[in-house]
Amino acid sequence: MVVCVAENINIMSKTIGAAIKGRDAKPIQDMARELVKAGADYLDLNIGPARKGGDETMDWLVKTVCEVADLPLSLDTSNPAAIEAGLKANPGKSLINSISLQPERLEAFLPMAGKYNADMIGLLWSQEGMPRDANERAAHCVDIIYRANEAGIPTEKIWIDPIATPISMDVNQVLAGLEFMSMLSEIAPGAKSIVGLSNISNGAPHELRPHINRCYLIMLMKYGIYSAIVDGYDTELLTIAKGGMTEIVNLVHGMMDGTEPDPKGLGPKELEYYKTARVLMGKTLYSHSWLTV
After folding, report:
1. Are 8 and 27 in contact (CB under 8 A)?
2. Distance in angstroms (rounded) separating the CA atoms of residues 249 and 24
3. CA 178 to CA 96: how far, in whole Å?
4. What are the tens digits of pLDDT across the range 170-217?
5. In angstroms, what CA-CA distances link 267 with 201, 261, 272?
6. Closest Cα partner for 2 from 227, 267, 260?
7. 189-204 burial, b for 16+ CB within 10 Å, e for fewer?
8. Which of 255, 274, 282, 8 is nearest to 168 (CA)?
9. CB neighbour list of residue 170: distance below 8 Å, 6 or more residues apart
10. Span 210-239, mean pLDDT?
11. What are the DSSP calls for 163-197, one per residue?
12. Distances (CA, A) of 138 to 134, 197, 198, 281
């Protein structure tokens, strides 16, 4: 079972963005109810950078959502004042999304996580930027856990994000993320893990993105992924996350173990996942037509 953090309450959405700016509670509360019904475990509240008035915006948004939903909240903004406002306003469990190894973010957010007893996402992004491979991810992981532990945050409250990158740009980074996930339990016993699934499909046509997200989730599940930031309206993805579609999961995991099924013997749904897994494993070159070739 994978903990699903629904990403949909996002200021980048036309509907939700307008509702946040206009302090119109109804569209936001309607969506929150729908996401709860769909099976989300957390709601991510993303207000963007929110440089001006971010604290008031996050305070209002948290209170608006908490009126209709009793789920833990992921507070998503780079504005420290807004994060603290959300932590104060949320009567339930909070997850800070996210804290990287950049000194200014460590200094701003780690004390808040300790003060408000919040969980935190440890984003494996350093002053030098994106990690190049699995080993750099491992080094960053050790660093961020050490810094968080120093600030009084136990490892069990740290959710490590290895950073998913678009398959359309570099399959090697996709493979490095999976390799790191296979190492995480040994590197950081007790730490949780989380991946933003929509990042892996950035650049793909809109109607094809769910195929990549779902298959990548299955691949991460092989290495015990704890949580994923997901489209809360993707019912097939949530079914997979909650333990369903076991034949498809076994198909993809078998391919990761070296089993190469005969595509001629696969049904239409199996074929979708077979072709997508080959792309994510680097066995087929990514193109927008990978499902039709």
Report:
1. no
2. 41
3. 23
4. 999 999 999 999 999 999 999 999 999 999 999 999 999 999 999 999
5. 24, 12, 9
6. 227
7. eebbbbbbbbbbbeeb
8. 282
9. none
10. 98
11. ----TTT-HHHHHHHHHHHHHHHHHSTT-EEEEEH
12. 6, 20, 23, 21
Q: What is the Cβ-side half-sphere exposure of residue 287, based on CA atoms within 13 angstroms? A: 7
Tell me the domain boundaries of the chain. 3-233
Is the four-CA dihedral 245, 219, 188, 192 of positive or negative sign?
negative
Distance CA 83, CA 95 (A): 10
Torsion of CA 254, 255, 260, 262, to 10 degrees: 80
Residue appearing with tokens 């927008």: 288
Residue with tokens 């475990």: 41
Q: Could you tell me if 1 and 192 are in contact, meaning their C-beta atoms sit under 8 angstroms apart?
A: no
Q: Name the residue with tokens 């930027």.
A: 129
pTM: 0.97
Structure-token match 């206009």, residue found: 22
Banded pLDDT at 66 (limits 50, 70, 90): very high
Q: Give the separation between CA 195 and CA 183, rounded to whole angstroms.
A: 15
If you average pLDDT over residues 110-125, what whole number do you get?
A: 97
Q: Dig out the tokens for 216 from the structure.
A: 């990548």
Task: Say if residues 195 and 237 touch (Cβ distance below 8 Å).
Answer: no
Q: Please, which pLDDT band fits residue 42 given cuts at 50, 70 and 90?
A: very high
DSSP string for residues in 199-239? HHTTTS-GGGHHHHHHHHHHHHHTTT--EEEE-TT-HHHHH
What fold does the segment set 3-233 form as a domain? TIM Barrel (3.20.20)
- Closest-CA residue to 29 (of 38, 21, 20): 20
